[in-house]
Design a protein that fits this description.
The structure holds two protein chains of two kinds. Chain A has helices at about 25-35, 40-50, 65, 75-100, 110-135, 155-175, 175-185, 190-205, 220-235, 280-285, 300-305, 315-320, 320-330, 355-360, 375-390, 395-410, 425-435, 445-450, 455-460, 505-510, and strands at about 55-60, 260, 300, 320, 345-350, 370-375, 465-470, 475-480. By secondary structure, chain A is mostly helical. Chain A starts with about 20 loop residues before the first helix and ends in an 11-residue tail after the last helix. In chain B, strand 5 (about 50-55) and strand 6 form a beta hairpin. The chains are: A mainly alpha, B mainly beta.
């Protein structure tokens, strides 16, 4: 028999040999770079690692994150690690096959440059998430072929260097957000997003909480400022001046303040977050009325409520108390229920859907609301911090007060401009970051990088729960429940600067990928 | 002048008439066969000599003289040993076989209420371990021939009338004449790259009576789960939950732990819902078969039709099957023969979700007891305490139907140009068409709802084509006997799946369960995929025998397969085996023949392959999704497609090879009253395809296959039979078989241990590592319960937030630096303290069969069991995690308290309970069992009416009793290769009582 008889191929599926060959395929390849951000555990991890490890929120189902008794087997670490590296592989495949290649089928050479920029941006995005969570990790910049699976952890310094290099290239290659707006492609990586990431990445390296880490470099404050100034100079971003609560609504997605978001939508094909497209974080953050939906797993603390200055409109725009929720989350004709298993009295109001919208979706896991990743106010506050550290207190106050001015919404009686200097100014910036960005997944990293994690959670402790009553005229009286403060007594530094590398990775590499100290 | 001679042929052993006996006038081709009643008639010349021959009987010659009635009694010839058995591309006398082959008569399954023919091997053939994976209707079987040879697919190859199949569940066991199991590589090497897991050869019946014979089988039975879970009632459940919360509040000082707030409709503490009872029922089984046949060895025909229905023990679960078969053989001329076997099966299934943890019976063991089935309004209720669904509602609501049509056709043409040279060409078709429908209506039970209904349909088709061409030459000279076989085969298998789904079907009526009934075009999802594989092979075999004393068999096969990379397509699979019939040596004559009538020793070696792996893994495919996320993304609120090559390519992958050696001994004593067959074997799997879990930093989805590991199975098998008589009328036979297999992974090719057997919320519980059996259970050892908080503080777990009443895990000696020297316990409990805590492989598995006949009564009992294996009772997690608001086991009432000081069951503390539930020997239990698989009592009426020659009525009981110490629902747990012996909440086997009748016309 002729051996040609055996020359069959895999049918019904494209193989890699014929991919990356034309414009349409480059777009598909670039689109895939973003998709790991959709993975529901991955998205869930932001809420879990960023908020409920801190004095801002608690996790009703799993107290280990709050108590700092988690270990390397916690599945959210595994998914975070896995999907960061899935995204890195997808980007690496694109870069290996597209960057600098002469592809005859590609007509639009500027598209080729753009998708390379998108891949570099997303690779940097995933590495930045990894280096914040785990410290130095294996630094993979090309698809591995099988005989090279003996990698060890690169230093965090090397990872940061790679991130910066990718982002700088992305700044050059990527268009402005306005270009995408004109082409109905909002959501792609932009020049502004790359600059915003660079500000974050530089601030991380310069922050005092990391002073014992190899990547620590105070000079990065100056670079952070430069990148922020470049971002401001683009002239296309501005603080949103509408109702602060609306900033997080479905209607105000990708608005003038938004620099980067994870895009979600109400897909007619999928009915939840488990395969795609639904923002699981909405489902997790809305309180529980006893039924399966919503889930109420994460609740905001009384301590966070207390952190807001009196009269700060952002308090009621960011937090909703349980009685108010029950009153509000009903359809006409329904009677309010009660929030079940109410641990704190508050919920995150930035992740919210009306009951009408919920009913029209059919499933909370199908929440179409985007997850805000980088907002201009975040960059303003990082810029203020960088100015402070480089001796420019005037500019620090200016940008801090821009954020406060927007928050006060014209009410001159609240949120006066900060006039402090020295450490009081730094504390004011820290305070502003907490209340401005609460519930958005920034708190843990902010506490770690500024070296305040142990002080806040273990030494100072925090109030978890408030006592709530209706005042009889539509308002609510919120008082101390009298419960003792919570102290994260199992937290220990420097161990808790990073989370543990997933145990499965340590096991599967036979220990070649070493565990973080203390785990 | 011709003489018309008539007579009846009966067996000397049992006095029963024998149909199908060949009656030939010696020296001529003039002959006939006996009819169904053993009668014959033939015209002969006076003084002719008639030769009566029949498989398994001594050939008998009789001079007719001038008699017109010649009744003959045939004696057994070396009972069971001179049957002709099928050995793959040919047949061989059983007594001449040099490899390891087990033969099972299809009679053993005849009147049992089982649907899957592979069940008949359970406990019947030494070395063959069959486990039912579930008691659900139409559920699968796990079949292992001589142990688990690989971490991959270890299922044997089935060859039905020459057609190669992976599954025979759709076939009608009543159509089978014989089943042979080729166990060692010397026997299976003729099947080359598919012989590694053993080969099960099935031959269907052919017509063998001169007159038309009609047989009818009728059976009906009832079934119920033989075992039920022992769960707490509402009061106890609530007390346990609340106590655990109160203890946690006291222990942690936190107000986060509170008693359960009762909510409607799950607030009546005086009522307990027995969910298991609610979803199960008394099921029914029906079976009907009709076989019509006629023929002799030259021309014969058989037609059969069968119907089987199993209304399962779970509400709305059912399996139904129609079978039809036509087997015809023709002698066209003395040199030409042809034949066709055609089998049709149609199956339909009302499925229930059976997958591990979301399966309906497992759900029914998890939902809290306080939630009622229905609300007061009559609508279904849904628990407010957990996210578990109402299983009764799901069974009555969701539609999950499947059906399949399967066609097997095999036709051949044989030419015998010179005597004993056979040229045969055969073409086979293996076709299947199946479709499935899943309709999930919308509903709102308060706490549980589905807003949009969804209909999903899928059809698949499979076309398999096989061409086999062989030449056989048989030659005898002096005392030499040689048979040579050479052949060429080629095959092509093509499959295709196509399906679609859409939301918003207008209503729940059956007639609207079509995709186009919905106008919600936007919600359409469609998929279509396929696969094509090809293979061609050369094969050859020589059988040589000298003086009926020395036997040699050598075979060779070369396979070429399209599923591997261009450099790895071909494999060679040789074998050789030897046999020596010692009894036939004159120097053995000092032992009288009536004491020991057979002694044979056998030895063989062979190399075979296992090609059951995912094809085309040498190509890296561009994926549009992985298991968790689609690679599309949204821009400006519109989804755009995305794709990426995220599967790692592997051009080096090839089939695994298995080398095995076998030595065996066959003995028969006291004129075959006692028979003994014993084998020792060693089976080494080389180049085992291991999905070596690659580091996650590589980013790939899944892990590529690598030919890296080696596994060794060695063991022995024994098969012992005794048949005898008490008085004239009571005849009995007893058969015992037992097997012992040691399984060890001898190398993973430098790869790291393979973790598998993921138990939800517990983690991976099996670890396959060098020096350990495949899928060994791995975890912590429980070393009692901490009696005081002070004990915790001075223990290796002092850093954990636990207290009195929690498990103390053993701090093990470990070899941290891999220098072969164990280091002392390090005072910390972490991943290093996990050890092997159990082995899913039994020390022994066995079957015991007892048949009794007294006049017209018959009684048969069949027992089967395993011993020395462990089960990982993974389901236990769900009934002991008192924080999850799931149902709790009554056994949990024996929990630790300061008063009882239990050292085996942790106390109630919601804040620490999950620390006790990590993978440990708490879950590991002895899985030994002894089960009465079947008992049958029958009575046969003979010559009841002129038109009916035989009527047998019987009563049969299945899974009548089980002796086991295992605490789960059923110790018979199948599972995948790396998840063997993990109980994910196994369905209990059904206990079936049935009655039936067999009619012969």
């Amino acid at each position: 028999c002729d051996e040609e008889y055996l020359d069959t191929v895999k049918i019904g599926e494209q193989t890699s040999g014929s991919f990356y060959s034309n414009d349409a395929e480059l777009i598909k390849a670039a689109n895939a770079c973003y998709a790991p951000m959709w993975e529901y555990h991955y998205n869930w991890g932001r809420t879990s690692f960023g908020n409920s490890t801190t004095d801002d929120a608690v996790d009703r189902e799993d107290l280990k994150m709050r108590e700092y008794t988690f270990d390397a087997t916690a599945f959210l670490f595994t998914y975070n690690y896995r999907y960061n590296y899935r995204g890195i592989l997808i980007a690496n495949q694109l870069l290996a096959n597209v960057e600098g290649q002469d592809i005859p089928g590609v007509v639009d050479k500027s598209l080729q440059a753009r998708v390379v920029g998108e891949a570099k941006y997303m690779r940097a995005y995933y590495y930045y998430d990894l280096v914040k969570n785990f410290g130095g990790v294996p630094l993979i910049t090309e698809p591995l072929l099988g005989d090279d699976l003996n990698q060890t952890r690169a230093s965090a310094k090397e990872v940061y260097a790679q991130i910066e290099s990718d982002l700088k290239a992305a700044v050059e290659a990527l268009p402005l957000k306005t270009v995408y707006e004109a082409n109905d492609e909002v959501g792609r990586a932009t020049k502004g997003a790359a600059l915003g990431m660079l500000v974050n990445v530089c601030v991380s390296q310069a922050s005092p909480g990391y002073s014992s880490e190899d990547f620590y470099n105070e000079d990065k404050w100056g670079e952070a400022k430069t990148y922020a100034q470049q971002l401001f100079a683009l002239g296309i971003y501005d603080l949103y001046q509408g109702d602060y609560h609306d900033l997080f609504s479905e209607a105000e997605e990708n608005n003038e303040e938004s620099i980067f978001e994870v895009q979600f939508y109400d897909s007619p094909l999928d009915d939840g977050a488990f395969t795609n497209n639904g923002n699981f974080t909405t489902f997790l953050n809305m309180p529980w009325l006893g039924a399966a939906d919503p889930y109420g797993r994460y609740q905001a603390t009384y301590d966070l409520y207390l952190a807001f200055e009196n009269g700060d409109p952002r308090r009621d725009a960011s937090l909703i108390n349980s009685l108010q929720y029950a009153d509000q989350w009903i359809l006409p004709g329904e009677t309010p229920g009660t929030v079940a298993e109410d641990l704190t009295g508050f919920s995150n109001y930035k992740h919210y859907l009306s009951k009408e919208r919920y009913k029209s979706l059919g499933n909370f896991r199908n929440s179409p609301v985007n997850e805000r990743i980088i907002r201009l106010s975040d960059i303003y506050l990082l810029y203020a911090e960088a100015c402070y550290h480089t001796g420019d207190e005037a500019n620090a106050r200016t940008y801090l007060n821009l954020v406060r001015a927007r928050a006060r919404q014209g009410n001159a009686g609240v949120l006066p401009d900060v006039t402090a200097s020295g450490t009081a100014l730094l504390d004011a910036i820290y305070h502003e970051r907490r209340v401005e960005l609460c519930g958005e997944g920034h708190r843990f990293h902010d506490l770690v990088r500024t070296g305040r994690l142990e002080q806040k959670l273990k030494i100072d402790g925090y109030k978890v729960k408030a006592s709530l009553v209706r005042d009889g005229s539509g308002g609510y009286i919120i008082t101390d429940s009298g419960e003792p403060k919570f102290f994260a007594t199992s937290l220990s530094m420097p161990k808790n600067i990073f989370f543990p590398i997933p145990q499965s990775e340590v096991d599967n590499t036979g220990g070649l990928v070493e565990q973080n100290p203390g785990y | 002048q011709d003489l018309l001679v008539k007579g009846v042929v009966t067996g000397a052993e049992d006095g029963l008439t024998i149909p199908g006996v060949s009656v030939v006038v010696k020296g001529t081709t003039n002959g006939t066969t006996t009819d169904f009643d053993g009668k014959y008639q033939i015209s002969v010349k006076k003084d002719a000599v008639l030769v009566f021959s029949y498989i398994g009987m001594k050939t008998f010659e009789m001079a007719v003289g001038s008699q017109t009635v010649v009744n003959v009694t045939l004696k057994n010839d070396n009972f069971a040993m001179d049957e002709v058995v099928v050995v793959g591309y040919g047949v061989q006398k059983k007594s001449d076989i040099t490899g390891s082959v087990a033969s099972v008569s299809s009679d053993v399954l005849k009147d049992q209420p089982v649907s899957n023919a592979a069940t008949l091997l359970q406990g019947r053939a030494a070395g063959v371990m069959v486990t039912q994976t579930s008691g659900a209707p139409g559920a699968g079987l796990s079949v292992r021939v001589r142990g688990t040879g690989t971490v991959n697919n270890s299922s044997p190859l089935y060859v039905v009338d020459g057609i190669l199949l992976d599954d025979i569940s759709h076939l009608n066991p009543s159509d089978f004449k014989s089943v042979e199991v080729l166990k060692d590589a010397s026997a299976t090497a003729i099947y080359g790259s598919r012989g590694a897991n053993g080969v099960i050869l099935i031959t269907s019946k052919t017509g063998n009576t001169k007159d038309v014979a009609v047989q009818v089988e009728l059976m009906t039975g009832v079934q119920k789960a033989w075992n039920e879970p022992d769960l707490m009632n509402t009061q106890d459940w609530l007390n346990t939950y609340n106590t655990s919360q109160a203890n946690a509040a006291a222990f942690t000082g936190s107000t986060a732990y509170k008693p359960l707030v009762l909510q409607a409709p799950s607030d009546n503490t005086n009522k307990t819902t027995d969910w298991f009872d609610e979803v199960t029922r008394v099921g029914k089984i029906y079976k009907t078969n009709v076989i019509v046949s006629k023929g002799d060895s030259n021309n014969n025909t058989l037609f059969s039709a069968g119907y089987f229905k199993n209304e399962g023990i779970v509400l709305n679960s059912a399996y139904e099957r129609f079978n039809a078969r036509l087997n015809n053989n023709y002698t066209i001329s003395p040199k030409w023969k042809a034949g066709i076997n055609l089998s049709l099966s149609h199956t339909s299934t009302d499925r229930v979700t059976t997958s591990a943890i979301s399966g309906i019976l497992t759900l029914a063991q998890r939902v809290d007891p306080i939630t009622p089935v229905r609300q007061e309004s009559g609508e279904y209720a849904s628990t407010p305490y957990s996210d578990l669904a109402n299983p009764v509602a799901q069974l009555n609501r969701d539609v999950r139907e499947g059906s399949a049509l399967l066609v097997l056709a095999n036709s051949y043409l044989q030419f015998e140009p010179i005597k004993n040279l056979f040229i045969k060409t055969a073409v086979s078709l293996n076709l299947s068409r199946s479709k499935s429908k899943t309709y999930l209506p919308s509903y709102d039970y308060g706490n549980e709802l589905r807003v949009t209904n969804n209909l999903s349909k899928q059809t698949s088709e499979f076309n398999g084509y096989l061409s086999e061409n062989t030449i056989t030459y048989n030659m005898d000279f002096n005392e030499h006997s040689i048979s040579v076989l050479a052949g060429f085969t080629a095959e092509k298998n093509i499959s295709e799946y196509i399906g679609a789904s859409r939301n918003n079907i207008p209503n729940d009526n059956d007639e609207l369960q079509y995709i186009s009934a919905s106008t919600d075009l936007e919600s359409t999802n469609a998929w279509n995929s396929g696969q094509e594989t090809r293979m061609y092979s050369y094969l050859g075999r020589v059988n040589y025998n000298y003086a009926d004393k020395y036997f040699l068999t050598a075979s060779f096969r070369r396979d070429g397969s399209s599923v591997f990379g261009p450099d790895k397509r071909f494999g060679n699979f040789p074998s050789m085996s030897l046999g020596w019939k010692l009894r036939n040596e004159s120097f053995m004559d000092f032992i009288p023949e009536d004491i020991v009538n057979r002694i044979k020793v056998r030895a063989g070696w062979g190399r075979v392959g296992n090609a059951k792996i995912a094809p085309y893994s040498f190509a890296s495919t561009v994926q549009s999704k992985d298991s968790r996320v689609e690679y599309s993304y949204v821009f400006s609120d519109k989804e755009q497609a995305g794709a990426a090559p995220v599967k790692m390519a592997n051009t080096k992958v090839q089939w695994e090879t298995v080398e095995s050696t076998n030595v065996g001994l066959d003995l028969a004593l006291l004129s075959d009253k006692i028979t003994l067959s014993a084998d020792y074997f060693k089976k080494k799997t080389k180049d085992m395809l291991v999905r070596v879990p690659i580091p996650q930093y590589a980013g790939y989805d899944g892990s590529p296959f690598v030919n890296a590991g080696t596994v060794e199975n060695k063991g022995f098998e024994i098969d012992l039979g005794y048949r005898g008589k008490i008085g004239n009328d009571l005849k009995f036979s007893v058969n015992v078989n037992a097997s012992h297999i040691d399984n060890e992974v001898t190398s993973l090719g430098g790869g790291v241990p393979i973790w598998s057997g993921s138990v939800s919320l517990v983690g991976s519980v099996t670890r396959t590592a060098e020096g350990y059996p495949i899928g060994a259970f791995y975890g912590y050892q429980v070393d009692g319960v901490f009696q005081t908080d002070a004990e915790v503080a001075t223990s290796a777990q002092s850093g954990e937030p636990i207290g009195a009443g929690d498990f103390r895990f053993k701090d093990q000696w470990t070899d941290k630096n891999d220098d072969g020297v164990m280091e002392a316990p390090d005072g910390v409990i972490n991943g290093d303290d996990r050890v092997q805590i159990g082995d899913p492989n039994p020390d022994l598995f066995y079957g015991l069969n007892i048949d009794l006949n007294y006049k017209n009564f018959d009684l048969s009992m069949f027992f089967q069991g395993v011993s020395g294996n462990e089960i990982f009772n993974g389901f236990k997690y769900y009934n002991y995690a008192d924080i999850k608001r799931f149902a709790l086991s009554n056994d949990y009432k024996n929990h630790w308290t300061p008063q009882n000081g239990s050292n085996s069951m942790f106390g109630l503390n919601a804040s620490t309970v999950e620390r006790n539930l990590r993978a440990s020997d708490f879950y590991v239990e002895d899985g030994s069992y002894f089960r009465m698989k079947n008992i049958q009592v029958g009575y046969t009426f003979k010559d009841l009416t002129p038109w009916m020659s035989n009527l047998r009525v019987y009563f049969s009981g299945q899974n009548v009793f089980t002796i086991t110490g295992y605490s789960g629902l059923d110790p018979e747990i199948g599972g995948g290769t790396l998840t063997q012996g993990i109980d994910y909440g196994t369905y209990p086997q059904a206990r079936i009582f049935s009655i039936g009748a067999n009619l012969t016309f």
